[in-house]
Structure formats: C-alpha cells, structure tokens
Amino acid sequence: MCGIAGIVSAQRTNIHAVRVMTDLMQYRGPDGEGSWTSDDGRCSLGHRRLAILDLSERGRQPMLDPELDLAITYNGEIYNYLELRDRLREMGHTFESDSDTEVLLRAYAQWGPDCLQELNGMFAFAIWDGRHRRLFCARDRFGEKPLYYAQTRDSVAFASEAKALARLKGVDLDIDPSVLASYLAEGSTRADANERTLVRGIHQLLPAHAMLVDVSKERAEILRVFRYWSVDVGARASYGSHESSEASAHFLELMRDSVRIRLRSDVPVGSCLSGGLDSSAVVCLIRELEPDADLRTFTGRFPNDPMDEGHYAKMVVDACRTDAYEVAPTPERFASEAERIYWHADFPIGGTSQFAQWCVFHLASRHGVTVLLDGQGSDEMLGGYGYDITASFLRQLWVQGQVRHWFRERAAAAREVPALFSWSRLLLNHPWLSPVRRLLRSGTGRPQMVLGDFFQEEVVRSAASDPLILAPEESAHDEHALSRILWTLSFRTMLSSLLRYGDRLSMAHSREVRLPFCDHRLAEFAFGLSPELLVGNGEVKQILRLAIENLVPPAIVTRPKQGFLPPQNGWVVGPLSDWIRDLADDPGPLDEHIDLRGVDRLVNEDAKTREREARTIWDLASLLAWSRYSLGPMQEAQKHSALAG
Questions:
Q1: Diameter of the chain measured on Cα atoms
Q2: Residue ranges per domain, the chain?
Q3: Using CA of residue 469, residue 473, residue 474, residue 475, what is the dihedral sign?
Q4: Would you list the DSSP string of 555-566?
Q5: How many CA within 13 A on the CB side of residue 104?
Q6: Which of 627, 626, 629, 584 is nearest to 605 (CA)?
Q7: Rounded percentage of the chain residues whose pLDDT exceeds 70
Q8: What are the residue numbers of the active site?
Q9: 460 pLDDT exceeds 80?
Q10: Does residue 494 contact residue 215 with C-beta atoms inside 8 Å?
Q11: What whole-number distance in Å separates Cα of residue 644 and Cα of residue 199?
Q12: Segment (H or E) for 349
C-alpha cells in the first residue's frame, strides 16, 4: 500500500511539484520515497512506500525497465502475483525482486493494457511508456484503491488523494454544484458514483476503468477513459435453477481461496472483527487456513449500548483462539480528532461508524499489525441491505411472470420485514406526495427535513439542469432489477463510498486493508446465482449463511443484518452539539451555497426536534466539517503555492 503521484506534459514536467504531492501523503508510505523523471522530461513520477512484499530496496519505486523505456508507480497489492510470475517466467521474463510491482511491470510489458484481465488485486497505478510517449493509468475492479486526476492548461496530473492535486496551480478548487446537489439529494454514496467530485477541477478514475494520456503533441491529452471489466447484470439464473448445497459449496471454495491469497505478506496480518456475518466469516477462514498462526483481531465496542456487538465478536474470538484487542470510541474523542479525520478523508464521511473504523485502525497500528483483512463488499454483492433490494427482487419476479414465486416470497418478506409493506412507509415515500411530506410525517415522529432544505435554491436546481446519472449501458430492464440494484451498490454508490472511507482512514494510520469479498471471481459467480439464494425466504445473504454454517458460530450465522453503528443520534443531540454549532458558525467555503439562518435555527432547536432530525443534522455537519477541515485548507494551500504542473 502506498501513495502515488505524477505529472505528464508535452513540456518539461516539474519534479519538485511531484515530490511535494508525495510528501503530503507521507503517512501512506512511511517506509520510503522515490521520484523519477523521463529523459525527455515529459513524465515525472513519485512514490511513497508502505513495504508489504519484498521489504528490501529491490522493491522501491518508481520501478524502471530501461530496455523497454517503461516506468511504474503503483499503489496496492496484486494477490495472484506468484502465479503470474511463474507464467511470465515461462514466457521468458526474468525478475530481480520478489515484489508484485515488478510482476505488474512485466505483465504490462507482455500484454500491454490487456494485463488488467490477468490481475486479481486492489490497485491504482500509472505506467509511463516512453516509446509511445503515453501514460497508462488503471484502477482495480471494485475501486479499492483511489486515483484522482486533474487537467491543467498543458499537463495532466494524478495522485492517490485529492488534497495532493490541490497543491498545483491551475487546478480549479471551486465546488461542483451538480455534485453538491447530488450529495444533498442522496448523500455521499451518490456523490461517489461519478467521475466528477465535489471539487470542480478534480476527477476520479472510476472502478474497473483505465485511462490513456498522450504527450506526443503540443499538450498532454487524455485520449481515452474506458471500462475494462464488469459483471453481467443479465447473467442471473432464473428462480430455483441452482441447487443450494452445491452453490454454497462452490461459493465457500471461492471465498477460501480469496482469503488465502490475501494472506500473502512479509509483515504481520490480522483482521478487523465486528461480530457481524462478514468479518466473522473472514476470521474463521483465516484460522482454518492457518491453524497455528498468531492471529490478532481488532474490534470497536460501544459498551452499554443496545447496538454493541461485543458478545458476538467474543464468540469468534473464543472459537478461533485470537488475540483480541478492543477500543471504545467516544464522542469526546471524535470532537477532538474531527479536524484530522476530515483532512485525511478528502471528502465527507457517511457517519460516526467511520470514526469507529478510524479508532480500530489506530488500535492496530499501536499493536504492530500492518495488514488487516475485513468483510466489506458482501452486503452490496449478496443483497444485505434489505428494503430496496427485497423490493427489486419482488419486482423482478413479477415482471418475469413468476407469480407463484412472487406470492411466496412476498409473504416471507412481509413476515421478516413488515415495515416494507406498511401503508405509512409507502405513502411517505411516494413521489406524488413529496410536496406534503412534512405534513404527512408530522404525525409519525419521522424526520420532516432533508439536507436540501438548507442550501441555496440554485444549488438544488443544478441537479435538474446537469444531472449526474449512470450511463444507459450501466442499467438494465426490470427483469434484471435485482442485479441492477446490486451492480449499482457494488460498483458506483454504497461500496464506492465505503471503500473511500476505508482507504483514507486506514492509510492515515499507515495500515493496509484487504477485502476478500472484493474478488472478481466471487462477483462473477454471485451475479449468476438464482435470486432466491441471495434474498429468498425473507432473509438476506442466503448463499453466505449456507456456505459458512459449519464454520462460524451458529448464533452469528442466523443473526439478522446489523450495521457497524455507534450511538450516533445520541451523540448528535448531546455531546457533539457544541461541535456542530461551531461548524454552523463558520462553514468555510460552503457559506455561499448554504442558508446560514436555516442551519442556525436547526442546530439550536430543542432536543426533541434535534433528535427527530438527527440524521439530517449529521449529514449537514459532515458536509460543513469537510468544507472547513478539508476543502478550506486545500484552497488556502493553493493560494500560497507556486507549483505548476
């Protein structure tokens, strides 16, 4: 895991600017740094190293192949690097190190951009191809590792984090009103779904996308941005076409191998453990694969809170004989560390559960565990979020004419999640009734406000004039409604945001997080399964429960879905009230877009009203914290910067 940056230009690039960008991300790579400029001066690459594989100097970057005029700066892990290295050796390639970086460089030398099809890993990298005077950049299939880029008058720059690009003159750091409007409507998950970001001049390479930049002419030009992989939303088998025991056995074998290759490391490996289904499955598989290993687990606890999952985590600790470490996040600690958290996060975070992650990663750093496995990715791929996924499943059955199965599954869903079919829920969420939402909700005790109520009207209108929507080819007809919503959750919205949080907050503590559920083999298999193996019989993630029923303690296998949640509402109404009011008094660059009087009224309402509107207050506070602690410092640093790309 590392931090990368670079600049390409038809003129001579600024190596000092690249070094400034990588130095800003020192925490992403505290074990070493390097920089390089091509002989013709058109490309400069920088790197900060967190040493995981081949800890020797032979693994340093940027790594060069002078004979082929190639250079690479790379962040991530290629988990199947051993198998790839053996194949490449058979093709005549030689290796001077034991690093996966050299394997990636040789893979590009052998296959060019098609090397992406051979990789199983998490990665963001840039390869300078001097013979063709072009830069090739790519991001892994799920988007675990970030890659941001910006185009100035005559250059293209890239970096692992937006704040690094913000140091360059010519990068527009104004807020993108359409992305802001998207955030106001649907939260950070929609803001992460597009190549545009909240900062107008900074774009992101989307998951499973690559980019070619040409510098052979008068200016650097982005020739092509393209998607190189996707699951097939039309590949799902029809209802009842898979035998559950056979499918679950195959799923477990894929999962086992995914964990196996993610244990490859030359530094200590442990695991995050919430006590939920996903992280528990990962820990139990680690113990099965390495029965005698020194296995350390790290858990966030909320003692005396009904949402605390500590007793479930202890079941796994006892069953797997782990050395367990726990931390109890507090609102006081959050308020004292919020400025650092948001500076590292680059963009708004989704909730105080991300603060709990921050505390867990810090705990792991204190105990010397550099690599952590975790369970992210299962809910999005296997249908773990309930309401909307169940509704899509039922709609798909109806459109496909499977009426008998529709009645059976609807009855099961109504037993397990009756709120999905309540008249009040249906009425309050119907678009025809949105103008009277507050009136309808006033008698239910449900929130009456939304984030858009507190922003200038022109911001909200910009969503209609410049909508951020998924491209048509990334959609499907209702007969594939279940796969469509799972695709969107997995590769554009929910998981994309969770991966951003996980990357920034772990790297802030120089920790690497590996996600066995984010393996393209698992995704391709899961998107072909018959739908009832995901959300049938009113239960989510059926295939996973079946696969691990003899591996994980039974009480965890049968427990309902629960997010990793601190007592957020209580914090917002109580201990964090002063922090939120302070943000409202000084919102930073957002002040020109926001209704300051409306915000002030909300955060100073009585406790009962603030408790009812706690979700909106949190979303508002998170956006204000980003503006003050992240965007504001970006803009201020650029004012005093003389760095040109």
A1: 74
A2: 2-166+202-229, 232-645
A3: positive
A4: HHHTSPP-----
A5: 32
A6: 584
A7: 92
A8: 2
A9: no
A10: no
A11: 19
A12: none
pLDDT at 451: 82
**pLDDT tens column, 320-332:** 999 999 999 999 9
103: tokens are 């394997």
Exposed e or buried b per residue across 58-77, where buried means at least 16 C-beta atoms within 10 angstroms of its C-beta? ebbbbbbbeeeebbbbbbbb
Q: What is the DSSP letter of 436?
A: G
Contact assessment for residue 622 and residue 348, using Cβ atoms and an 8 Å cutoff: yes
Q: How far apart are CA 548 and CA 97, in angstroms?
A: 38
Distance CA 58, CA 99 (A): 8
In this structure, which topology does domain 2-166+202-229 adopt according to CATH? Glutamine Phosphoribosylpyrophosphate, subunit 1, domain 1 (3.60.20)
Rounded alpha-carbon distances, angstroms, from residue 367 to 297, 328, 372, 402? 10, 16, 12, 54
d(CA 196, CA 420): 34
**H or E element at residue 175:** none
265 backbone dihedrals φ, ψ, rounded to 5°: -170, 150
> Using CB atoms within 10 A of its CB, is residue 345 exposed (0-12), middle (13-18) or buried (19+)?
buried
Task: Work out the pLDDT band at 469, boundaries 50, 70, 90.
Answer: very low
Residue whose C-alpha is closest to residue 72's, from 45, 112, 38: 45
Task: Locate 137 and state its tokens.
Answer: 């950049």
Please give the CATH number for the structural domain made up of 232-645: 3.40.50.620
pLDDT digit string (tens) for 512-569? 999 999 999 999 999 999 999 999 998 899 999 999 999 999 999 998 776 666 788 8
Contacts of 637 (CB under 8 A, 6+ apart): 166, 167
Higher per-residue pLDDT: 211 or 306? 211
Cβ atoms of 187 and 93 within 8 Å: the answer is: no
Mean confidence (pLDDT) of the chain: 91
What mean pLDDT comes out for the span 107-116? 98
Q: Which residues contact 338 (CB under 8 A, 6 or more apart)?
A: 579, 625, 629
C-alpha pair distances (Å), 316 with each of 175, 205, 295, 312, 377 = 45, 38, 12, 7, 20
Kindly state the helix (H) or strand (E) to which residue 607 belongs, with its residue range: helix 607-612
CA distance 623 to 127: 35
Q: Which residues contact 246 (CB under 8 A, 6 or more apart)?
A: none
Give the CA angle between residues 190, 280, 413 to the nearest 5°.
Answer: 60
CB 99 within 8 A of CB 58: yes
